[in-house]
């Protein structure tokens, strides 16, 4: 698993802990791109924990830069999953838990 290749949690990195772990409807305030990213993360969080921006981008039809810039809304919103910015080795990695 690539967890051993990923740097440890970045000190001071944003961490969001959601109140609800059963939310299935994205908040109305999310953009279409943010909804696509959130849908992908929710669908795969049960099987995986670590997600690279470039791999998310490939799956949802965005660039890695677009994924990174849209993750802020998911970090700050009530989206039903916990997202942490985890590392930068060969691209940003996100730790996602339900």
Account of the 3D structure:
The protein has a single domain (12-97), classed as Winged helix-like DNA-binding domain superfamily/Winged helix DNA-binding domain (Arc Repressor Mutant, subunit A). It is built from three helices and four strands, in the order βαβααββ. The chain has helices at residues 32-44, 53-60, 64-76; strands at 15-16, 50-52, 82-87, 93-97. A four-stranded antiparallel sheet has the order 1-3-4-2. Strand 3 and strand 4 (93-97) form a beta hairpin. Helix 1 (32-44) packs across helix 2 (53-60), helix 1 (32-44) crosses helix 3 (64-76) and helix 2 (53-60) crosses helix 3 (64-76). The two termini are 19 Å apart.
The description of the largest β-sheet is:
4 strands, antiparallel
Question: What is the number of strand segments?
Answer: 4
The shape is globular
* Strand percentage: 15-25%
For the record, the count of structural domains works out to 1
Provide the succession of SSEs.
EHEHHEE
The chain-level mean pLDDT equals: 79
Q: End-to-end distance, in Å?
A: 19 Å
Topology:
Blueprint: E1 15-16, H1 32-44, E2 50-52, H2 53-60, H3 64-76, E3 82-87, E4 93-97
Antiparallel strand pairs: 1-3, 2-4, 3-4
Features:
disordered N terminus, 98 residues, globular, four-stranded antiparallel β-sheet, 16% strand
Outline of the structure:
With 98 residues, this protein is of the alpha+beta class.
